[in-house]
Amino acid sequence: MKYHKINSELFIKNRKNFVAQMKPKSLAVFNSNDIYPISADSTMPFEQHRDIFYLSGVDQEESILMLFPDCPNENLKEVLFLTETNDHIAVWEGEKLTKEAATKTSGIKTVFWLQDLEKVLFEMASYADTFYINTNEHYRANVATETREDRFTKWLLAKYPAHSVAKSNPILQRLRSVKDQIELDLMQQACNITEKGFRRILNFIKPGVWEYEIEAELIHEFVKNRSKGFAYTPIIASGNNANVLHYIENNQECKAGDLILFDIAAEYANYKSDLSRTVPVSGRFSDRQKAVYNAVNHVKKEATKLLVPGTIWKEYHVEVGNIMTAELLKLGLLDKADVQNEDKNWPAYKKYFMHGTSHHIGLDTHDYGLLHEPMQANNVFTVEPGIYIPDEGFGIRLEDDVVIQEKGEPFNLMRNIPIEADEIEDIMNQ
Q: Which of 11, 91, 147, 332 lies most in the core, judged by the most C-beta atoms within 10 Å?
C-alpha cells in the first residue's frame, strides 16, 4: 500500500464498539471484496470491502474476519483468515500478509490460513446461536453483482440452517458515521493531497487546454503524495458540460471565457475527500459569472452553519432550499410568481439546483449514516450547493468536507483550499 501504516488502536476500538452491540452468543462474519475480472487474464484493481477494513485494517483480498465476543474459547473471540503466503507468491504478486504482520496491522492475535476455515468455523458455530451477516443496505446501493460476501452468506446459512440471523449493517451505519480522531486525521490527509492537486491545476489552466490534460495533472499530484488516485471518477466539465451533473468524459477543449467545474478529490488509506470548485479558463470571471459564483458561495457558507448536532437531514435541505431561493431571486433566475406557484414536491429553485446539498463521507464517498437520525458530533458531511444555467452556458458548484462539532460551526477539512472568487483569480494570474 502507498499509505503510511495506520495505528492498530483504531481497529481495536472499532471492533470493541461493534461487539458491544451484538446479541449474546452471536458470531459476526466479514469478507473481503472480490478481485473482479475484465477479460482474458485482466482484472480491475483490488478495492477492499470497507467494513472489514474498518474493523481490521486488513487491505488484502480473500480475507475473512470473525467476531465472537461470547465464545468460550478465548482464542476464538476475534479471528482473521488469510490466504497462505509463500516465497512463490512473493515473487509473482508481491509480499502478502504473514500472520505476524496481520496481527500487527489489526491487533488480532488469532490468525489462520483460509485452508483451516471450515474446521475453525465448525467449532465457533457450535457455540453460537446467531450469525451476523453483512448486507449492503446503504440508501444509494444498487448492486447487480453477487459479491464474495453474498456467496459466503449463502454457503454459511445453507451449512448451518438452524442458526438465527441478524444484520451487521445497522450497527455499522451508526458506528462508521461517527469518526474517530485517527480517521479524521486520515481524511485531513486526503484533503491535503486534494489541495496540492487543485493548486497545481490553477497554474496549469489556460485557453486551449483539454479536460483530460487537467485530469493527468491531478492524478500525477495525487499519486506523488501516496494516494491511489481519485476518490471517485473525476468530473472536469468546461462550459456547458458543467450542466451535466455526472459528466465524466473529460474530453473537451477548455475555451476562453468559459468556466470549468471540477468535482475531483484524492483518497488516502481508503478514506475519501470530495471537492468541487469552479474556475475561469481565462483566469478572470465575467461579472455575471462572478455574481452567480458568489451566490453559490454564500449558500455554501450559510448551509455549513446549519450542520450542528441535532439537525435532521431532510429539514436541513428544506432550509438550504429557502436560502438558495433567495439567491436565485436576486440573480433574476426566479421571480416571485415562480415561488408562489411552485410545486412543494419540486420547489422552483430545483430548476437551477436539482441535487442535494450534503452527504456523509468517510471510507466511502457517499459514506454510511442513517439520514433519519439527528446529526452528531464527528459526523463528516460534504456541503455542495450549485447553480446550473444551460441557457448561459455554465454551471457552478462549490464543495467542502466539514466535521460537525459538539458546539459551534463545523470544522472545515478543506479550509486551506482556495474558494473565494478573488483568490482564485489572483492565483491564476500570478
A: 11
CB atoms within 10 A of CB 317: 16
For residues 182 and 280, give the distance between their C-alpha atoms in angstroms, rounded to a whole number: 37
- Write phi, then psi, for 30 (nearest 5 degrees): -135, 130
The pLDDT profile of the chain, 430 residues, written as one tens digit per residue, is 899 999 999 999 999 999 999 999 999 999 999 999 999 999 999 999 999 999 999 999 999 999 999 999 999 999 999 998 877 776 677 778 999 999 999 999 999 999 999 999 999 999 999 999 999 999 999 888 999 999 999 999 999 999 999 999 999 999 999 999 999 999 999 999 999 999 999 999 999 999 999 999 999 999 999 999 999 999 999 999 999 999 999 999 999 999 999 999 999 999 999 999 999 999 999 999 999 999 999 999 999 999 999 999 999 999 999 999 999 999 999 999 999 999 999 999 999 999 999 999 999 999 999 999 999 999 999 999 999 999 999 999 999 999 999 999 999 999 999 999 999 999 999 9
Measured distance CA(120)–CA(112) in Å, rounded: 9
Rounded CA-CA distance 172/176 in Å is 6
Helices 287-305 and 313-330: crossing angle, nearest 10°? 150
DSSP structure class, residue 399: B
State the SS3 of 257-313.
Answer: CCEEEEEECEEECCEECCEEEEEECCCCCCHHHHHHHHHHHHHHHHHHHCCCCCCCH
267 φ, ψ (degrees, to nearest 5): -100, 160
Domains and CATH numbers, the chain: 8-176 (3.40.350.10), 181-429 (3.90.230.10)
CB 60 within 8 A of CB 114: no
Contacts of 193 (CB under 8 A, 6+ apart): 221, 222, 225, 226, 227, 266, 268, 273
For the question of whether the overall pTM of this predicted structure is more than 0.70, the answer is yes
Do 76 and 123 contact (CB within 8 A), yes or no?
yes
